[in-house]
Amino acid sequence: MFAVSGITASILFISSQITFISSAHAEVTSLSTEQQQDVRAIIKDALLNDPELLKEAIIALQTREQQGASSAKQTALDDNHSAMYETKSDPWKGAENPEITMVYFTDFNCPYCKKIEPSLNKLIEEFPQLKIIVKMVPLQGEGSKMAVELAQTVWLNEPEKYIKLKDMLMSSPRRLDSASIAKVAKLTDTEHWLGKTDARVAEMVHDNVKLMRDLGIGGTPSMIFGDKVIPGLVPYDVLKEQLQEVIEAQGK
């Protein structure tokens, strides 16, 4: 009954029985104690005679796990499509009537976000049909929180001043604090919003952080092109390649 031949058949057999053995103490199976011992003996004999079987079985298991993770990530992207692309209160830059839209999670005190900003601006210049939705998340302390509250409040009330404010906050070479944020607010004529955070902002920030977690994103910067998440600081060419893939896939 348990005789097998061929490496492929052996791998499949061993993989299935590894699962069986790990749960044998907790589940009732159709195999008797004697049959279970036979299975163990067959597996042990196969591994002793050909240790490469174990290596191949592990690779097969890792492949299966990766496929499962990819499937879960795709499900998360599908489930959260509306939150990513259709939240009316999100700031954005680029095309007002876009053919292509991407999502960008960022933190004003994230040094890698500061470094990737020029690449995103270059992307907009090269692809005028692109819109970038900005999801601001305060992950790096009180300075980040204050900056996001100011920027989101300005976007909700004086959106025409948002891009200049965001760019100046992001261009700060050091971590933002109350003094540096106040200085930027004065330079962008938004200082009247300091300490007057819009009541809607807290919920928006909460939703952005929750969305990150739901998508399995662990930090900033993170970009979403179509059904692909690009985490971390990456070269401009990587961003451009991903965008071109989406454009080609959508036939734009």
Description:
This protein has 252 residues and is of the alpha+beta class. It is built from 10 helices and 5 strands, in the order ααααββαβααααββα. The protein has a 5-stranded mixed β-sheet. β4 and β5 form a beta hairpin. α1 packs across α3. It is elongated, with a radius of gyration of 26 Å. Residues 1-7 have low confidence and may be disordered.
Considering the chains and any ligands shown, give keywords for the structure.
5 strands
Brief overview, please?
This protein has 252 residues and is of the alpha+beta class.
What is the structural class? alpha+beta
Poorly predicted regions are 1-7
Q: Please tally the helical runs, counting DSSP H or I stretches of 4 or more residues.
A: 10
User: Which of globular, elongated, flat, extended, rod-shaped describes the shape?
Assistant: elongated
- SSE pattern: HHHHEEHEHHHHEEH
Rg is 26 Å
N-end to C-end Cα span = 57 Å
Largest sheet: 5 strands, mixed
Average pLDDT, rounded to a whole number, is 87
- According to DSSP, the number of beta strands is 5
